[in-house]
Amino acid sequence: MSSSASVFETSIDGVAIHRRGKVRDMYEVGEHLLMVATDRISAYDVVLGSAVPDKGRVLTQLSAFWFGRTGHIVGNHMVSTEPGEYPQPLRDHGALLAGRSMLVRRTRPIPIECVARGYLSGSGWKEYQRNGQVCGVQLPAGLRESDRLPEPIFTPATKAETGHDINISEAEAGRLVGPDLVSRLRALTLALYEHGAAHAAGHGIIVADTKFEFGIVNEEGGEDVILIDEVLTPDSSRFWPAERYEAGGPQPSFDKQYVRDYLDRIEWDRQPPAPTLPDDVVANTRLKYVEAYRLLSGRDLNVHG
């Protein structure tokens, strides 16, 4: 499979589909799941009509990079990213799975998204303009769009299978999953963000905000919380080039904000059916994703599937 090919949806003979998300196709593999990142792209919680070549490879390979770096903070669900190590019949599909798949542990997903914000942008900026807060966290007066916050904040959200995620307060999250668990999630979220942001800063990227997902697994001695899904990718984060950062307005980015900006220009109403992206927007989006991977990991993307 060449680097110019794209994968919008996958099918693996003899393997049952677990579910299809906005970007990932999940398969049942005994006690594990196989997570395949397609090249679908969503914006405003709607899957668009275009694929971005190699996007799924960026998400998988960058997540694997971060899983490898953050094990000292919290365990994670990654088992392998090498198709040759997968059980049959998956090994027969190496051309499809190489570089864009991950065999993972099954967990009981915690039904909130754990967002860390170090800068004021996106929905946080909009909420701050209304009431000076973000998800119940009171912020200093007079902040501008894209300003760095005095310290990173934890701003959870509900997880929606369809439609839009909704920002909630930490107290509301506690009512959903329990205050003790939310306290643990808050500490893990901020520790992961601070670790990732420090690494990214050394490679020319500002991590303005990012979201994490966690699951519960049964371990000897009881249950434990581990990191799941994706980690510090252009889909789950706002990545800004540090050399071009200037507070007071929107920032250029390495993430899908570029796509959102195009959709805003054409005045899409953010409801299905989703538009198809022009070729130049697709090509430029791919370049941004691949460059983010290269800068953060120090490696060239593996595009040989």
List the helices and strands and how they pair.
Layout: E1 17-20, E2 24-29, E3 32-37, E4 40-43, E5 46-51, H1 55-69, E6 78-80, H2 94-97, E7 101-105, E8 108-109, E9 112-119, H3 122-131, E10 133-134, E11 137-138, E12 148-154, E13 157-158, H4 170-177, H5 179-201, E14 205-219, E15 222-228, E16 237-241, H6 257-265, H7 279-297
Antiparallel strand pairs: 1-2, 2-3, 3-7, 4-5, 6-7, 8-14, 9-12, 9-13, 9-14, 10-11, 14-15, 14-16
Helix pairs in contact: 1-7, 4-5
Describe this structure in words.
This protein has 305 residues and is of the alpha+beta class. It folds into 2 domains: 1-106, 2-Layer Sandwich (Phosphorylase Kinase, domain 1), CATH 3.30.200.20; 109-260, D-amino Acid Aminotransferase, Chain A, domain 1, CATH 3.30.470. Helices cover 29% and strands 28% of the residues. It is built from 7 helices and 16 strands. The chain has helices at residues 55-69, 94-97, 122-131, 170-177, 179-201, 257-265, 279-297; strands at 17-20, 24-29, 32-37, 40-43, 46-51, 78-80, 101-105, 108-109, 112-119, 133-134, 137-138, 148-154, 157-158, 205-219, 222-228, 237-241. The strands form 4 sheets. Strands 8, 9, 12, 13, 14, 15 and 16 form a 7-stranded antiparallel β-sheet that branches. The chain has a 5-stranded antiparallel β-sheet with strand order 1-2-3-7-6. It has a two-stranded antiparallel sheet with strand order 4-5. Helix 1 (55-69) runs parallel beside helix 7 (279-297) and helix 4 crosses helix 5 (179-201). The protein is globular, with a radius of gyration of 19 Å. The model has no long low-confidence stretch (mean pLDDT 94).
